[in-house]
Amino acid sequence: MKFSIIIPTLNEENTIEGCLTPLLPLRNECEIIIADGGSIDNTRILAERLVDKVITSERGRSKQMNNGARQATGDMLIFLHADTCLPENALQLIRLKICSARLWGRFDIQLSGAPLMLKVISQMMNWRSRLTGIATGDQVIFVSRSVFDKVGQYPEISLMEDIALSKALKNISPPICLKDKVISSGRRWEQNGVVKTILLMWCLRLRYYFGADPELLAFLYANGVFTQFKLTDLWRPAKGD
Q1: CATH 3.90.550.10 holds for 3-189
Q2: Which one of 64, 123, 198, 224 is CB 3.0 to 4.6 Å from 35, fit for a cystine?
Q3: What is each CA distance from 44 to 6, 67, 86, 97, 170, in whole angstroms?
Q4: Domain limits of the chain?
Q5: Residues 15, 63, 151: CA angle, nearest 5 degrees
Q6: pLDDT tens digits along 32-45
Q7: 177-231 per-position pLDDT tens digit
Q8: What CA–CA distance (Å, rounded) separates 217 from 212?
Q9: Residues with Cβ < 8 Å from 31, sequence gap 6 or more?
Q10: What CA–CA distance (Å, rounded) separates 104 from 78?
């Protein structure tokens, strides 16, 4: 089994070396691809010596990951965010659990950061994922190329592409839920406030479920906006906000 790790980036010069350096021992077992969305900082320069390929893509995480997957040569794809670190034995863990009946999955997550509440949030994310069979991008989704192509790859929407992909993959099989943890940055939670971010994320998910435009949700997510929400927004598509 050959692995391809695909990392979407956009202006990640402050985190990219910390993401890529721990992956160096894996390069004899897999290829590492940066799918950059047009960074204007030093992201690509810093990444070039640490990866197999740096490709430039139209901006948008789902588009970047799809473009990375199209240029990957592995038969198992791992989609890794630039602020997330894999466990050292990640590839072995996937090899042990993957089988013909279950060809996709994700890891448990631990959010890094000072607030103790981040540990609680991490555990709740892992429990929710096990209960629903839905994985988030921060949990590092892995999937066989054949199944990824079968479901049409990531839908090229501005937000919730991980939720949409998980729903499509669930129609084929439940996910493999690895208990080993990836470490993901809790910077957004710390910057915007833990409680506020929890409320924002749940409202975004509810609005997506009820048909809200992903473009609008992406704007609200990027700006950490919660005050614009009204209770009635939870039940309407909100196409023209």
Answers
A1: yes
A2: 64
A3: 14, 16, 21, 33, 34
A4: 3-189, 194-235
A5: 120
A6: 999 999 999 999 99
A7: 999 999 998 777 777 777 777 777 778 877 877 787 778 777 777 776 554 445 4
A8: 7
A9: 2, 3, 4, 5, 52, 53, 72, 73, 74
A10: 10
CA 32 to CA 55: how far, in whole Å? Answer: 11
CB 140 within 8 A of CB 110: no
Show the tokens assigned to 24.
Answer: 């160096």
Q: How is residue 120 written in tokens?
A: 């609680």
Per-residue HEC secondary structure of 50-76 comes to CCCEEEECCCCHHHHHHHHHHHCCCCE
* The residue to which tokens 């833990």 are assigned: 194
Rounded CA-CA distance 98/104 in Å is 7
Question: Are 106 and 73 contacting, i.e. CB atoms less than 8 angstroms apart?
Answer: no
